[in-house]
Design goal:
InterPro entries: RNA_pol_III_Rpc5. One of its GO terms (biological process) is tRNA transcription by RNA polymerase III. It holds the Pfam family RPC5. The protein is α+β, with helices and mostly antiparallel strands. The protein has one domain. It is 35% helix and 15% strand. The strands form 3 sheets. A 5-stranded antiparallel β-sheet has the order 10-5-4-3-11, with no helix packed on it. Strand 7 and strand 8 form a beta hairpin. Helix 2 packs across helix 6. The longest helix is centred in the middle third of the chain and has 20 residues. The radius of gyration is 34 Å and the shape is elongated. The two termini are 64 Å apart.
């Protein structure tokens, strides 16, 4: 390519900026990247959009994270359904359970209706809640929140590493991410209705108030039963699917682990800006050691490229050993030596 054409190509895509790259050291605090696949970027969960998280919780061992987003019950709100869901959540808590269901709770079974009689005097029916809706809101009998949650994908060896980039002048500071979580809507309020019905049937059967007879026993036998998870120890050689065993252990940990409450700071608060400047930038860039790659260019290309496959399907020959190479060289020297000396070669015909 001529120099003029090279200059034209460079002018079409010139370098407009250069940055010095720095990597911040890892600290005790963990950094998680939260993704919201069902939410538009312009409608973030923050104070500016009226969607500030009111509760943030984490199960670090099981690897689950959830947060509750408050909703405005005075506009575009289904009052009847919110009272039904709120009553189901309240009954779940009254029965000794929690407001979390599904994988984050380890698919734990619903507990019995212990202490139910003590709470019946203070219950508010759905009809009463509709007539006195504001009172029901004040008593937290209305389900007025949206729960988002997901499982933490931890940073593992061999997988791509996510890093957060922060610019400051001509500097780019990269901070390693400890995990990625895709926060999706959770339907604990719907599961609470099923669990409340199951708990009510168990309580009636235990008290002897339910229907009796062979037909009732057969109907009860057909009802789906929630099974508690019990930890068992087996030799790995007897386990056909290690992933299934790992999933069972994860659910067991999730069922036993309690939520750890976290304090939430909005992105526009002063504490968030202080954390941003303190965590995402290197303290002394001038004293930072230079970054050196541990791989050569060819090694890097081999690492990121797909394995080479011969389309002919023939197996590659093994490389010659050192002794084989020496023998070939010695044989070549003998042939060359005989050619220089000259002579006649007799060929006998059989």
């Amino acid at each position: 390519m001529s120099p003029s054409r090279v200059a034209d190509v460079e002018d079409d895509d010139p370098v407009i900026a250069e940055y010095n790259v720095y990597i911040t050291p890892r600290q005790l605090e963990q950094i998680y990247l939260l993704q919201y696949p069902n939410r538009n970027r312009s409608q973030a969960y923050n104070d500016r959009n009226g969607a500030r998280p009111v509760d943030f919780r984490l199960k670090p061992q099981a690897g689950f994270m959830e947060m509750d987003i408050g909703m405005n019950p005075s506009a575009n709100f289904n009052k009847f359904q919110s009272l039904v869901w709120g009553e189901a959540i309240r009954k779940s808590k009254t029965n000794g359970g929690s407001a979390t269901f599904g994988a984050a709770a380890g698919f734990a079974p619903t507990k019995g209706g212990k202490g139910r009689a003590k709470q019946e005097g203070s219950e508010m029916s759905v009809d009463q809640g509709l007539a006195r809706f504001q009172e029901a809101v004040n008593r937290d009998a209305v389900y007025q929140k949206q729960t988002l949650g997901g499982q933490i994908l931890q940073d593992e060896a061999g997988n791509p590493n996510y890093m957060l980039g922060a610019f400051r002048g001509d500097e780019l500071h990269l901070t390693r991410v400890d995990g990625v979580v895709q926060m999706r809507p959770q339907f604990h309020h719907v599961d609470a209705i099923t669990h409340a019905e199951t708990a009510a049937r168990r309580t009636e059967a235990a008290e002897g108030n339910g229907p009796s007879g062979p037909g009732a026993a057969a109907a009860a036998a057909k009802q789906p039963q929630a099974l508690a998870l019990a930890q068992t120890y087996k030799d790995n050689r007897d386990v056909e699917n290690l992933e299934a065993l790992r999933a069972k252990n994860l659910l067991l940990i999730a069922a036993e682990e309690k939520w750890t409450r976290l304090e939430y700071f909005d992105e526009d608060e002063e504490a968030s800006y202080e954390t941003y400047h303190d965590r995402l930038f290197l303290k002394e860039p001038g004293a930072a050691p230079p970054l050196k790659s541990q791989m050569k260019n060819e090694e890097y290309l081999d690492a990121i490229s797909a394995p080479r496959v011969d389309p002919s399907g023939r197996k590659k020959k093994r490389p010659l050993t050192k002794k084989q190479m020496e023998r070939i060289e010695a044989a070549e020297d003998d042939v060359e030596g005989s050619g220089e000396m000259g002579g006649e070669v007799e060929v006998e015909m059989a």
